[in-house]
């Protein structure tokens, strides 16, 4: 139940972001509010859990790196992509995160490639080719380049997972890590949004875009915190299966709530990406595996 709820909440952030962007809001302004709302939510959690936020040179650098590769960079690219693509397509694209994570881990010699996992990566690659190749995959084929833009977000998340596996300071609470990274990210995003005139004024009467923005930020904070809880409660192998729910929820919610329809090429790409996820996810026997 917790896995399903976490995945649905996470998957819903993709169509919600699409609605938020429909109001003409700039990605930087959306990211700024996402971080502010995450700080409030995670801050309350941290206070209730009576955990302190460590302010040291090492942890501040750690928070800065996580803020950049885990929030600012991927959110900028994912919002740029979802502004141009159907939200369901972006849900499929973002499912490639574990494949990028594995590829990076192999490059860093943290993993040895196995035939099954190599096949999983190839299935994910073929899914992307189907999305950008056939003329009938996208409603506007000329926007296929934005599939590649979305892949930059997936690459960034994959890099983040490897960074966390290798360089996380020992004993640092995961929720506190998210809070610290959100604070550092907000200290960057909010001034940039204010200086560039893209900060969103939420004191005006709300429409669907503003409501979607706030709900998406809450969903993201809840889903990310829930995922961390799942890793601790049930282990990384079980928690990794949230990726299936995120992708399916993103596609289904986008179809139902936004009225999106997809060609059979897209459904084939979805099946291939799910198959790729199955092959690259961690094995229960591999206690030392990090991806």
Structure in words:
This protein is mostly helical. It is 75% helix and 0% strand. It is globular and about 50 Å long. The protein starts with a helix and ends in an 11-residue tail after the last helix. Residues 285-291 have low confidence and may be disordered.
Keywords:
mainly alpha, globular, 0% strand, 12 helices
Strand content: under 5%
Chain-averaged pLDDT: 88
Main sheet record: none
The first-to-last residue Cα distance is 23 Å
Residues in helix, % = over 70%
Helix-strand pattern? HHHHHHHHHHHH
- Class by alpha and beta content: mainly alpha
Secondary structure: elements and pairs:
Layout: H1 2-21, H2 27-49, H3 57-82, H4 87-94, H5 97-107, H6 115-132, H7 145-167, H8 174-196, H9 208-234, H10 236-240, H11 242-258, H12 264-280
Helix pairs in contact: 1-4, 1-9, 1-11, 2-8, 2-9, 3-7, 3-8, 4-7, 4-11, 5-6, 5-7, 6-12
What's the gist of this structure?
With 291 residues, the protein is mainly α.
């Amino acid at each position: 139940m917790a896995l399903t709820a976490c995945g649905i909440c996470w998957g819903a952030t993709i169509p919600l972001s699409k609605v938020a962007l429909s109001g003409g809001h700039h990605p930087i302004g959306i990211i700024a509010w996402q971080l502010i709302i995450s700080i409030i939510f995670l801050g309350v959690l941290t206070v209730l859990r009576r955990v302190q936020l460590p302010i040291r040179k090492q942890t501040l650098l750690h928070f800065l790196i996580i803020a950049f590769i885990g929030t600012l960079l991927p959110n900028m690219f994912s919002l740029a992509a979802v502004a141009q693509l159907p939200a369901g397509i972006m849900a499929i694209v973002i499912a490639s995160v574990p494949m990028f994570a594995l590829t990076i881990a192999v490059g860093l010699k943290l993993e040895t490639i196995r035939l099954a996992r190599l096949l999983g990566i190839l299935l994910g690659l073929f899914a992307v080719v189907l999305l950008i190749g056939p003329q009938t995959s996208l409603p506007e084929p000329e926007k296929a380049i934005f599939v590649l833009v979305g892949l930059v977000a997936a690459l960034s998340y994959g890099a983040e997972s490897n960074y966390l596996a290798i360089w996380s300071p020992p004993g640092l609470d995961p929720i506190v890590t998210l809070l610290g990274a959100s604070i550092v990210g907000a200290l960057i995003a909010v001034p940039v949004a204010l200086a560039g005139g893209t900060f969103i004024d939420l004191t005006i009467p709300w429409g669907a875009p503003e409501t979607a923005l706030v709900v998406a930020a809450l969903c993201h904070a809840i889903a990310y915190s829930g995922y961390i809880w799942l890793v601790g409660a049930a282990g990384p192998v079980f928690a990794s299966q949230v990726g299936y729910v995120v992708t399916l929820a993103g596609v289904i919610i986008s179809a139902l709530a936004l009225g999106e329809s997809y060609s059979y090429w897209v459904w084939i790409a979805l099946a291939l990406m799910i198959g790729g996820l199955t092959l690259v996810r961690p094995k229960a026997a591999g206690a030392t595996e990090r991806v």
